[in-house]
Amino acid sequence: MTPVSNQCPQCEFTCSQKGTLNRHIKQVHDKIKDNQCPMCEFTCSQKGTLKRHIKSIHDKIKDVQCPQCEYTCSQKGTLKRHIKSIHDKIKDVQCPMCEFTCSQKGTLKRHIKMVHDRIKDIQCPQCAYTCSQKGDLNKHIKQVHDRIKDIQCPQCAYTCSRKSDLNQHIKMVHDKVKDVSCPMCDYVCCTKNHLKTHIKMVHDKIKDVQCPMCEYTCSRKSALKQHIPLCTGELNCSAGEYNVIQALGKLGFVKDVDYFYNQSYVVKYKSLLKWDFRVLYRGLIIFIEYDGKPHTEPVNWSGKMTEEEMQFNFEEYKRKDKIKNDYCEQYGYPLLRIPYTEFNNIDTRVTEFMNGFMV
Predict the structure, then answer these.
(1) Residue 37, SS3 per DSSP
(2) Residues 242 and 350 in one domain
(3) Residue 218 pLDDT grade (very low, low, confident, very high; cuts 50, 70, 90)
(4) How far is residue 330's CA from residue 299's CA, in Å, rounded to a whole number?
């Protein structure tokens, strides 16, 4: 007996059972989600989908074993996708906008959202970072905020947060593989990022990393870090802070005896705030703050920050400055703020300010 074919009136879907057709219409076309998870906000169209959700998300049962590796999961469909992408390495889903191929439609959707549409609609709750995927947000929080390094190199003491970082470390440090070539010269390196930096610095000669305290520019953050100690002497501080140290030294104040540099003291915002200078003189507590450019306007420290990240950092500086100002006003502590525009007058500003207490 030939099975009866039921045709969907809205698309090319066919099936043998009317119940299957009704479920298809409800889920795909009407998009009715009337099955509510009792443990979270998840909703779906079918009871079977809800059962699978509870099993995998809440009960975390992984009783489906891959026959080719140690991978386990909750659903047979998940196992099929795993075998297709990991073991069979079948990439039969083609991006319509580029040469990218993958195994799953979901992977293609994420690729289009991230690469072509450039949609970053997932916001980090702790900073201005945005991304396209929840997985990227979880990696960001783990690496940047929680600072968890639970992946250990099997060949040395190196630890990191992501497998990709470990693979890059092994390739670069242990295997010493240099398989990325510059198209403009004989330079070879381990990663595409290294190549980008090389082209930017050597061929394009772009210097978009600006020292916030002076006119120095460079191509890389690491070069800026090297510049600051050279600019300010052995102390790893800004040029403005270094000049304040020099001015206090001329007045006879000794570091870590008469004043303390870059140490936290009483005031808190998320954590204890550090003051540039806390001077102790005849029972007085005197504060001096050197306000670099980031205190007055958004600054692109790395050359890669978004406008949102720059604005976020600027607002953070303003909040911290206000907290310090309010604290000094409330308790009557003298506070001298020197803006970076007064860089050439730091010695005069500090001397005149401190002389008011040394009469």
Answers:
(1) coil
(2) yes
(3) confident
(4) 30
Give Cβ neighbours of residue 267 (< 8 Å, ≥ 6 apart).
Answer: 273, 275, 323, 324, 327
Q: How many domains does the chain have?
A: 3
Residue 135 belongs to domain with CATH number: 3.30.160.60
Residue 167 and residue 181 share a domain? no
Q: Is residue 54 part of a domain?
A: no
What is the structure's pLDDT at 153?
92
What residues contact 325, with CB distance under 8 A and at least 6 apart? 335
* Of 241, 263, 267, nearest in space to 330 by CA: 267
Pair 140, 148: CB distance under 8 Å: no
Gap between the Cα atoms of 74 and 59, Å rounded: 10
* Separation of alpha carbons 226 and 222, rounded Å: 6
Instruction: State the DSSP string of 226-249.
Output: HHHHHHHTTS-S-HHHHHHHHHHH
Q: 295: which residues sit within 8 A by CB, 6+ positions away? A: 317, 318, 321, 339, 340
The C-alpha angle 165, 169, 173, rounded to 5 degrees, equals 170
Domain match, 251 and 281 both: yes
Which helix H or strand E contains 73, and what residues bound it? Answer: strand 72-73
Task: Please check whether residues 180 and 256 belong to one and the same domain.
Answer: no
Q: What tokens appear for 178 in the block?
A: 């240099």
d(CA 130, CA 136): 9
Domain range for residue 313?
A: 238-355
pLDDT of 35 strictly over 80: yes
Beta-sheet strands, E only, within 200-340: 209-210, 217-218, 259-269, 271-281, 284-291, 335-339
Q: State the residue for tokens 């002389």.
A: 355
Q: Are 211 and 301 in contact (CB under 8 A)?
A: no
271 belongs to a structural domain = yes
pLDDT at res. 277: 95
Q: Is the pTM of this model over 0.70?
A: no
Region 171-184: what's the mean pLDDT?
Answer: 91
